[in-house]
Amino acid sequence: MAGLDRNTPLPTRIVVHRQSRALELAFDDGKVFRLSFEYLRVHSPSAEVRGHGPGQEVLQVGKRDVDVERIEPVGHYAIQIFFTDGHSTGLYSWDYLHWLGTQEARLWHDYLRKLNEAGASRDPQAGSAMPARGTAVGGAVSGAPAPLVATEARRRSP
Q1: Strand, coil or helix: what is 17?
Q2: Domain residue spans in the chain?
Q3: Architecture (CATH level 2) of domain 11-142
Q4: pTM (2 decimals)?
Q5: Which residue, of 31, 34, 105, 112, has the fewest CB within 10 Å?
Q6: First to last CA, the chain
Q7: Nearest-5° Cα angle at 77, 18 to 82
Q8: DSSP state of 38
Q9: What ranges in 23-93 are assigned the alpha helix state H?
């Protein structure tokens, strides 16, 4: 899932829905997915979440209220999502986002089952709230989210 080839569906539209905390992705194969920020966060492709090999996955807990500060393009193959809990190390390639969309029901069910088995929750624990936005640092405001704008990506002819 890491590389692009000529069969990789490419996004034709990416829309950030701030109020409902979801990322909408339309692909050139006609599929459209609306993935919650929480779902994207708990299924981050980063080593912090997936580990460095089978069996090293780390169950992500307390992410129900996670938001997105900003999203940046990475070349012509991925986006990097900056979450309000400080996580930003996963690169979401087009093929990985498409796979997350097609596998959402199964992956979400598995995630909820694992949370239940671990006695864990989607809710943030008391006292471990998300980082505050707009905190003054050295006279400048940091942590304030940059405005997210609906964008469109168009496939270029080879």
Answers
A1: strand
A2: 11-142
A3: 2-Layer Sandwich (3.30)
A4: 0.79
A5: 105
A6: 22
A7: 35
A8: H
A9: 37-42, 47-50
